[in-house]
Design a protein that fits this description.
204 residues; 7 strands; 2 domains; five-stranded mixed β-sheet; Heat Shock Protein 90; alpha+beta
Length: 204
């Protein structure tokens, strides 16, 4: 039992390092660029916006992590509601993309803190990919529970991609999602085709 607790702590520490660490490094870089441009008496508007954006992102990541760490268990419905809130906020930067939500929570399911955190990170990666690369005007979030599992699907209706080509290239974002899913024994299924959008389903 102690070993399991220690392993969970180490996983959470790595997550904090990977996410908060990278965002803090980006914030530091943005501030440095702001200082350079200030000394050169160049326009600062773009630099200021980058600092503000990165700061908000950093604060949001910290809030999400604290919310999860403060709970021994997270109900599937609560998790999905939190994901909807996150997606609404994220889409403020992509006003051309509308959010659709479908949910059917027939049976109560719970996640432990490690499962909830890794699942949230997978969903964040999927949402970011859909917004940045898919050029879709619509994003669909689906959540449902059955007696033995909780499933989330994130689907866009954009330009899609060749799944075989992505697998060959070892796309970092998708690889990262697969590793996170494996760490919590979740099943991750990626469906995509060029010109037909993409869907990522996670079942745990």
């Amino acid at each position: 039992m102690q070993l399991q607790v220690q392993e969970e702590k180490e996983r959470l520490s790595r997550d904090l390092h990977d996410n908060l660490g990278s965002q803090m490094a980006l914030l530091s870089n943005n501030i440095e660029n702001l200082d350079i441009n200030f000394k050169k008496q160049q326009p600062l508007d773009e630099n200021i916006e980058k600092v503000k954006g990165t700061s908000k992102q950093l604060l949001q990541t910290l809030r999400e992590t604290i919310w999860i760490l403060n709970k021994e268990q997270v109900a599937a419905q609560e998790f999905f509601d939190k994901l909807i809130d996150y997606t609404h906020r994220y889409l403020q930067s992509y006003p051309g993309t509308q959010l659709q939500v479908k949910e059917e929570f027939l049976f109560p399911q719970n996640l432990n803190s490690t499962e909830a955190l890794q699942l949230f990170r997978i969903c964040q990666e999927a949402i970011a990919n859909a917004c940045k690369y898919a050029e879709s005007t619509s994003l669909l979030l689906q959540g449902n529970t059955q007696q033995t599992f909780f499933e989330i699907t994130i689907q866009d209706f954009g330009k899609g991609f060749d799944i075989n080509q992505i697998n060959e290239d070892g796309h970092y974002g998708l690889k990262n999602m697969q590793q996170r899913a494996k760490s919590i024994n979740a099943k991750l299924v990626i469906t995509a085709a060029a010109g037909k959008g993409a869907a990522i389903a996670i079942k745990i």
